[in-house]
């Protein structure tokens, strides 16, 4: 088991003929992901190292039976690409695009909720998702993720930060701890998938035995997750929150990473998670060590 | 990007939101000129991006040209909480019957737009929220539905505004929503929104924060960028298109990914050091980006060591390594580098660094983030 994606997931890449789309699309395929097609308007009939290219998502879906899409197009084109995928019946969209205006994101999110409730959007501005050994959609270097073991215990990871996700994967691998699925929800203000969506899935997934969560300053997603954990999550958890030393009022790289009006601080988030029974580390390494201890006790 | 009040008012005017007649002045003579054109009495207002201007003496009423001269002379050059006043906004003074508050923002939790409307304006909305939360109407708006003048009318009535203020407020709210959405604002706030004795509704102040991600469709923002308050380091970083925030410490930071960069600051702090900056070289970093990053760090004379923290996803290790080797050939760095390189093609990257034969006094490599942080802090603090 894994959450959201597995070895059967068929993926198309919107923007397969572009630099990022080609590089990561081919890497995903080499990892073993079923990358069955690409979409670039006007380039139907071409192929990228054997992967057929279509003009529209609808054509790609009809020809390949894909249910997932990996979107690697520039910010200007990303909103339309997401809605095109949803309209074509894609049910799982991974959008790595960074720099989409917040107004567009809010509109796309609410359009999906209203018109395409069966479609889940991961991102934008996220590293993607990897179910080690089964499926890798996005920019994660697959080789740093430890395969889940049949007997377990395995860890599920959910994170707002790309590179901190890699860090977590890497440190768990050093400890020989398997990962069921690792989800990067992204650092933008309106993520399509949030912590709670992933926690729900991990709680229900029999292959996931413990959960690691990586948050950062800004917004209240971690506090909301803490409330959810208190009421619904019985699996043990560790967490790390980035941005303890971030100055107020500055966007720390991610559009969503900002402390404003005294709200969204790292300390507030750490306190909320600690109160919910989550073991919180002061740096990524410590959070991984705490997870290693948890796993040993299972 | 936060706008100055005068820029906010000019931005409002693009969306037909009524503001007072007035203009910008950077000299005393100019202030008088603007005041003459706007009509007396006028208000002379310091343009700084910090609260409490009025208390600090940065907002003054002037009844004639002599008073404008006096106040403009005092306010220009004034230091308000570390912000030196370089620009004045001079506008026709308004008669005020009542003061309200109105703003649109994105509620990240609800993932909807949020209208806040209150008949208690002119004070900080945070204060109202604490002392009299019932006086604030909070209304979520689905971005797909939008917000019409009719919606504005309902909001104004529900916020308990007096009958004579309803129509004018409804009209302004609809326009402010257009400004917020089409104008790509993170925040569009009017405080106070005033009711004049004559019954007109009018924006007496403007607080606008723009979403930098939308800059590609707003060529008119170029003039705002030119006046943004940046220190010299931040200015240089902007020229190189880098995500940089200047801080006060001695360890220069370069990391890939915002989360990792934030985390690097935290770890440096945790082992007893302090970061000189936040710098995220982002996903597709290459030799040129790394060179630019090192040039910006090198410009900061407080920097005693440079901590490069790279975990490869999009950014490939060999690209990072090539960038460092090339940067060292282009820039004479004043501070030694401590690097921690991991992830995609990290082994190739480390080999490139090794083969380049860079002396250890200039560059050391550490296997973990904590060890690298300790080494960088040790150099920076002389321990």
Written account of the structure:
The complex is a heterodimer of chains A (298) and B (383). Chain A is built from nine helices and 14 strands. In chain A, helix 3 packs parallel to helix 4 and helix 7 runs parallel beside helix 8. Chain A folds into two domains: 113 residues, 3-Layer(aba) Sandwich (Rossmann fold); 152 residues, Rossmann fold (3-Layer(aba) Sandwich). Chain A is α/β, with parallel strands linked by helices. By secondary structure, chain B is α+β, with helices and mostly antiparallel strands. Chain B has three domains: 72 residues, ATP-grasp fold, A domain (Dna Ligase, domain 1, 2-Layer Sandwich); 126 residues, 2-Layer Sandwich (D-amino Acid Aminotransferase, Chain A, domain 1), CATH 3.30.470; 150 residues, Rossmann fold (3-Layer(aba) Sandwich). Chain B starts with a helix and ends with a helix. In chain B, helix 2 packs across helix 3 and helix 10 packs across helix 11. The model of chain B has no long low-confidence stretch (mean pLDDT 92). In chain B, strand 10 and strand 11 form a beta hairpin. The chains are: A alpha/beta (298), B alpha+beta (383). Chains A and B meet through helix 4 and helix 5 of A and helix 9 of B.
Mean pLDDT of chain A: 94
| Cα separation of the termini of chain A | 19 Å
CATH hierarchy class name of the largest domain in chain A:
Alpha Beta
Main sheet characteristics of chain B:
6 strands, antiparallel
Radius of gyration of chain A using CA atoms only: 18 Å
CATH homologous group name of the largest domain in chain B: Succinyl-CoA synthetase domains
* Beta-strand segment tally of chain A: 14
The greatest inter-chain interface is formed by: A-B, 63 and 52 residues
Shape label of chain A: globular
Q: What is the straight-line distance between the termini of chain B?
A: 40 Å
What structural class is derived from the secondary structure elements of chain A?
alpha/beta
The helicity of chain B comes to 25-40%
Shape of chain B: elongated
In the CATH hierarchy, the architecture of the largest domain in chain A is: 3-Layer(aba) Sandwich
Count of extended strands of chain B: 18
Indicate the CATH architecture of the largest domain in chain B: 3-Layer(aba) Sandwich
CATH class of the largest domain in chain B: Alpha Beta
Rounded Rg of chain B: 26 Å
State the strand order across the main sheet of chain A: 3-4-2-1-5-6-7
């Amino acid at each position: 088991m894994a959450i959201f994606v597995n070895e059967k997931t068929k993926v198309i890449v919107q923007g397969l003929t572009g630099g990022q789309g080609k590089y990561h699309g081919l890497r995903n395929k080499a990892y073993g992901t079923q990358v069955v097609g690409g979409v670039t308007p006007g380039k139907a009939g071409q192929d990228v190292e054997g992967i057929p290219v279509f003009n529209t998502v609808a054509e790609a879906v009809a020809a390949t039976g894909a249910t997932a899409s990996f979107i690697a197009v520039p910010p200007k084109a990303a909103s339309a690409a997401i809605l095109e995928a949803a309209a074509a019946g894609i049910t799982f969209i991974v959008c790595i695009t960074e720099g989409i205006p917040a107004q567009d994101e809010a509109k796309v999110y609410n359009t999906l909720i209203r018109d395409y409730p069966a479609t889940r959007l991961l991102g934008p501005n996220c590293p993607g998702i990897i179910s080690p050994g089964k499926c890798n959609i996005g920019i994660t270097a697959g080789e740093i993720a430890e395969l889940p073991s049949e007997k377990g215990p395995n860890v599920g990871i959910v994170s707002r930060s790309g590179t901190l996700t890699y860090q977590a994967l890497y440190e768990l691998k050093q400890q020989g701890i398997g990962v069921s699925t690792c989800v990067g929800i992204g650092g933008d203000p309106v993520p399509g998938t949030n912590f709670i969506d992933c926690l729900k899935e991990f709680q229900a997934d029999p292959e996931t035995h413990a959960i690691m969560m990586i948050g950062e300053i800004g917004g209240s997603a971690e506090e909301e997750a803490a409330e959810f954990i208190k009421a619904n999550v019985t699996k043990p958890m560790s967490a790390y929150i980035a941005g303890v030393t971030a100055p107020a009022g500055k966007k720390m790289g991610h559009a969503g990473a900002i402390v404003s009006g005294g709200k969204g601080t790292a300390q507030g988030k750490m306190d909320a998670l600690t109160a919910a029974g989550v073991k919180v580390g002061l740096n990524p390494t410590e959070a991984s060590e705490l997870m290693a201890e948890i796993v040993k006790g299972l | 990007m936060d706008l100055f009040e005068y820029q906010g008012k000019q931005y409002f005017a693009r969306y037909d939101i009524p503001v007072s007649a007035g203009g910008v002045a950077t000299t005393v003579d100019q202030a008088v000129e603007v005041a003459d054109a706007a009509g007396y009495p006028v208000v002379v207002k310091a343009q700084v991006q910090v609260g409490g201007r009025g208390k600090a003496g940065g907002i003054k009423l002037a009844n004639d040209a002599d008073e404008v001269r006096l106040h403009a002379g005092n306010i220009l050059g004034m230091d308000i909480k570390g912000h030196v006043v370089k620009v004045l906004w001079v506008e026709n003074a308004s008669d005020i019957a009542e003061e309200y508050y109105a703003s649109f923002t994105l509620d990240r939790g609800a993932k909807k737009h949020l209208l806040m409307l209150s008949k208690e304006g002119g004070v900080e909305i945070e204060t109202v929220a604490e002392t009299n939360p019932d006086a604030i109407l909070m209304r979520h708006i689905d971005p797909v539905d939008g917000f019409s003048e009719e919606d504005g009318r309902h909001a104004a009535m529900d916020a308990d505004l007096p009958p004579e203020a309803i129509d004018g407020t409804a009209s302004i709210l609809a326009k402010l929503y257009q400004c917020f959405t089409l104008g790509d604002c993170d925040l569009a706030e009017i405080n106070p929104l005033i009711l004049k004795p004559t019954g007109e509704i009018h924006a007496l102040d403007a607080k606008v924060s723009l979403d930098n991600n939308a800059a590609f469709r707003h060529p008119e923002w170029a003039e705002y960028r030119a006046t943004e308050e940046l220190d010299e380091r931040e200015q240089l970083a902007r020229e190189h298109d880098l995500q940089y925030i200047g801080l006060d410490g001695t360890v220069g930071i370069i990391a890939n990914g915002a989360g990792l960069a934030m985390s690097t600051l935290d770890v440096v702090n945790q082992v007893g050091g302090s970061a000189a900056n936040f710098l995220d070289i982002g996903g597709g970093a290459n030799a040129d980006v790394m060179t630019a990053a090192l040039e910006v760090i090198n410009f900061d004379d407080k920097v005693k060591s440079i901590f490069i923290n790279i975990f490869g996803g999009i950014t490939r290790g060999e690209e990072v390594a090539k960038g460092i080797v090339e940067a060292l050939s282009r820039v004479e760095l004043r501070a030694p580098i401590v690097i921690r390189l991991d992830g995609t093609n990290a082994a190739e990257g480390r080999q490139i660094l090794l083969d380049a034969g860079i002396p250890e006094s200039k560059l050391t490599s550490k296997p973990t983030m904590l060890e690298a942080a300790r080494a960088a802090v040790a150099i920076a603090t002389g321990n």
